[in-house]
């Protein structure tokens, strides 16, 4: 179990111990205080091994956005969402990524309108679950057609998938098959 120290003792940490630093920003009456914390954990022979189970644990703890850059994760997760009839979330996320990569302002405006009509309009067939405030912010920012006009809605949908669909996918038999075949760890 890691021990949290409120101060730094680099010279007291034995060589075989691994440290991790975390910077935490707290608000206290309008002021920000920088608190540094060192987590100390003994490195053992087992913790140095990089096997499939360790890789699996670390990838399960990684962010969904990072993991979806892997084509195997993306395909398997998309198929899982289709089986649950909730694929609009991943389709919206992919559409936002594609939108951000487009460079021509005229194309960007047309694509932004299409994304809004397909996913964000209250009567959209594939409407994603976002609050009205976020929907209004996106609609206002579409006039500028900046690459980041969908970022807030995209982040909201990603967090929704991370907390809801992703844990169920990790427990599903589809993910289990991919793990046994070794496809998603490449």
Task: Describe, in plain words, how this protein is organized in 3D.
By secondary structure, this protein is of the alpha+beta class. It folds into two domains: 47 residues, no CATH class; 128 residues, Regulator of G-protein Signalling 4, domain 2 (Orthogonal Bundle), CATH 1.10.167.10. 54% of the residues lie in helices and 15% in strands. The protein contains nine helices and three strands. Strands 1-3-2 form a three-stranded antiparallel sheet, with no helix packed on it. A hairpin with a 2-residue loop joins strand 2 and strand 3. It is elongated. About 25% of the residues have low confidence.
What does the secondary structure layout of this molecule look like, with pairings?
Elements: E1 3-5, E2 17-28, E3 31-42, H1 45-48, H2 52-61, H3 64-67, H4 71-83, H5 88-101, H6 105-120, H7 132-141, H8 151-171, H9 173-181
Protein name: Regulator of G-protein signaling 8
Pfam families: RGS
Domain RGS: 63-172
């Amino acid at each position: 179990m890691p021990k949290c120290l409120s101060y730094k003792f680099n010279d007291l940490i034995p060589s075989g111990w691994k440290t991790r630093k975390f910077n935490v920003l707290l608000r206290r009456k309008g002021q920000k205080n920088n608190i540094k914390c060192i987590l100390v954990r003994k490195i053992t022979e087992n913790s140095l091994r990089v096997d499939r189970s360790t890789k699996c644990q670390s990838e399960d703890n990684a962010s969904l956005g990072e993991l979806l850059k892997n084509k195997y994760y993306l395909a398997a997760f998309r198929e899982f969402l289709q089986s649950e009839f909730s694929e609009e979330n991943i389709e919206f996320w992919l559409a936002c990524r594609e939108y951000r990569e487009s460079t021509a302002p005229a194309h960007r405006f047309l694509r932004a309108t299409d994304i809004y009509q397909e996913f964000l309009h209250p009567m959209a067939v594939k409407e994603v679950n976002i609050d009205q405030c976020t929907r209004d912010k996106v609609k206002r920012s579409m006039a500028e057609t900046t690459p980041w006009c969908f970022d807030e809605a995209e982040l909201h949908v990603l967090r929704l998938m991370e907390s809801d669909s992703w844990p169920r996918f990790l427990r599903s038999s589809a993910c289990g098959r991919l793990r046994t075949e070794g496809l998603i760890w490449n």
